[in-house]
Target: SDR family NAD(P)-dependent oxidoreductase
Amino acid sequence: MKIDLGKRTALVTGATGQLGRVMARTLAQCGANVAIHYRSSEEQALALQEELTAYGVKAVIVHADITDQQSVADMKREIEARLAPVDIVVANAVVQYQWTSILEQAPEDYASQFDSCVMQSVYLAKAFVPGMIERKWGRFVGINTECAMQNFPSQSAYVAGKRGMDGIYRVLAKEIGEHGITVNQVAPGWTISDRDRESHTERNEAYEQSVPLKRRGTDQEIANAVAFLASDLASFITGAYIPVNGGNVMPAI
Model:
C-alpha cells in the first residue's frame, strides 16, 4: 500500500515557505501535478518548480495575494489554463508578524491573521470547491497549529486567526461532504525545517521535555500527514484537526 496521487493536481499556497516547499515536494513524489503558489519569492518558486518536474510531474508557479478574492480567482483560472483543475488544495500561506502581548499587539496584526487564515480559506473554497463538486472528488487541507490549543502569552493574533480558520473548516466539512470532498486540518508543533538545519538550532530541550515523544517533529513529518489526507487512504476522514506534534497537545473528547 502506498500513497498514490497520480493524475491529481494539487495547489499549495505559501509553497516557497519552510513547510510549504516540503509539502509540495512530497505531493509531487506521490505523483501529483503541483501548482506552486508564491507571494514574493519568485526565485525560490522557480527553483522548486525545477525540482518537482524532475520527479516526472507537471509543476507551474502562480503568484497571488491569498487575502484578496479577485487575486485568488485569477490564480484559479491561471492554474486551469496552464495545468489542470485543482483536486487538492493545501492552504499553508500565512502573514508573518511580530508576536507580543494583547495590550501591545497592533490591531492590524489581528486583521492580517484573520485575512490570511480565515478569508484565505473562504476564498480558496469559493474558487476551487465548485469544480470539486462537479467531479465528485476533492481534498481540502488547511495548516493550523498547536498554538490554537495552547493559547500561550503573545500568541493572541495567531491563535485568533487559526481558531477562526478551524470553525470554517468544520462547517465546510459538513457542507460539502456529500459530494465526496474531505476537509481536514494538520496542526504542526514547533517543527524542524531547513532554517534550523542551516543554523543548527534543531534541538530545544525545554520544548522537547513537554513533548511525550521527547523531540521536535520535522517538516517531512508534517508533509507526510498532508499527503495522507490528500489521498484515497484518508477517504473517510473529514472535519478533523490532527496535531502532528508528538503529543504536545491532545484534543479532548
Notes: The chain has one domain: 9-244. The beta strands are 9-12, 33-38, 59-63, 88-91, 138-143, 181-188, 241-244. The two ends are 30 Å apart (CA to CA).
